Amino acid sequence: MAKAGRLETVLPVRLGSGGARDEPIAATEEMKKAVGELLNFNDGIYRIYQLSEARVSVYIAWWEPGRMSPRLVAGHTPDVCWPGNGWLRDNAAERRLGALREELSATGFAEGEVRVFRMQNKPEYVVFWHKVGDRMLSYHTGYAPPWWAWLDEMWRGGLNLRKEQLFVRISSDTPLETIWPQAEMAPLRQALLALGLGMAAKPAR
Length: 205
Known about the structure:
Blueprint: H1 7-10, E1 20-22, E2 43-50, E3 55-63, H2 70-74, H3 78-84, E4 88-89, H4 91-94, H5 98-106, E5 113-119, E6 122-132, E7 135-137, H6 149-157, E8 165-172, H7 176-179, H8 186-194, E9 202-204
Parallel strand pairs: 7-9
Antiparallel strand pairs: 1-2, 2-3, 3-8, 4-5, 5-6, 6-7, 6-8
């Protein structure tokens, strides 16, 4: 996975001929209402790229082993935080995202969580991954973990929960399946695979 201080240099500085800018992580939907909480990550970045026909936002956080409980990280996924910031989840649109799942698989990525959110009828297309050790967590319910999640956490991870974690969220104002395979996205795909989002990651279900 990542190492502290590496994310800024691992991510491409631009995609194609478009520009890019870094924003404070507090500006992400995951943190707008949680700036007073301590996510306690070792390294994080929120970079926004302007492609020729789309805007792509990349939010990544990394925790060294033992730094943060996976259950607490799970409390700041788009499923939890975006609705709290006024976004509505479009379940009907999500059922039509098979093409994005196919594109992710075709480009060597582990299965990610794909979502569509809307605000004032403007859609935002999202894919995110939460990796703990060598396993990808799966969010079947699409909601915050229940009170008994710590038991499930111990069952999956054993008594030794000291594993590094990586959270990656990609979002765009354009359907991701249309831009993901494009050549100008290649540097970002390569950077994300280098961070450990490839198919070798085992699903934790």
